[in-house]
C-alpha cells in the first residue's frame, strides 16, 4: 500500500493541485469576461445632451459609485420580486428591515441613501426613491423621480449614477418600460436644465451629472431606448 509520502502519491497530489488552480483561474477569467461583455453590450442613446447608455444588467450586480432604485409604499401588499429580491438577499434582508411605516415609508419622492454592507452589493452607495401607492401609480410620477435622480446624485458628488426604475420588480407590470423611462428622462433633463441655468449665473452648489446608465431587462432594452429618445426629442423642442 502506498502512503502519502510515496512519490506517486506526491505526483498525483501535485497534478490535482495544478488542476484545481487551473479550474479556479478559468472560472475567474470567465467571470471577468462575462462582466466585460455586459459592459460592452451597453446601448448608447443617440442625441442625448449627456451620455446616456442602456445596460441589460440587474441593479444587484452593478459596480458603480451610486446605484439608484425605486420602491413602492412600504406595505405587505407591495412585495419584492426579481432584482429587488436579489438585492435584499445580498444585503441580508436589509430592505425588509427598512421597509416599514415607522422607517422608510416609500411615499412618492421620499429618499434614503444607504452604504451597502461589506461583501453585499458592488455599488458603493444605494439611493432608494419612494414611488407611493402601487395601485394608483402612473408613469407621469416618474418625472419627479428623474428630477430627484439628477439632483441627489449631483448633491452627493456622483457624476455618473446608475438607475433602475424597478417598477416591474415592484409588482406593477401594466406600463411599458418605454413609458416609464421616458418620464424619468423628462424629469432628469429638466433638473439638468435648472442646474445649467444656475451654473450660468454662478449659483450652482453642485458638480452636476455628466453621464447616466439606465438599467433594463434584456427584453426591455429596445422599448427603454425608444422612450428615452422620445423624451430627449421632446426636451429639445
Provide a count of the helices: 6
Task: Tell me the span between the first and last alpha carbons.
Answer: 86 Å
The CATH level-2 architecture of the largest domain is identified as: 3-Layer(aba) Sandwich
Q: How many beta-strand segments?
A: 7
Please list the strands of the largest sheet in the order they lie side by side.
1-2-7-6-3-5-4
CA gyration radius, whole angstroms:
22 Å
Average pLDDT, rounded to a whole number, is 88
At the first level of CATH, the class of the largest domain is Alpha Beta
Helix content: 40-55%
Detailed description of the structure:
By secondary structure, this protein is an alpha/beta fold. The chain has six helices and seven strands. The protein has helices at residues 7-40, 82-90, 94-98, 142-155, 177-200, 221-235, and strands at residues 43-44, 52-55, 67-71, 111-114, 126-130, 162-163, 212-215. The protein has a seven-stranded mixed sheet, sandwiched between helices. Strand 6 (162-163), helix 5 (177-200) and strand 7 (212-215) form a beta-alpha-beta unit. Helix 5 (177-200) runs parallel beside helix 6 (221-235). 34% of the residues are buried.
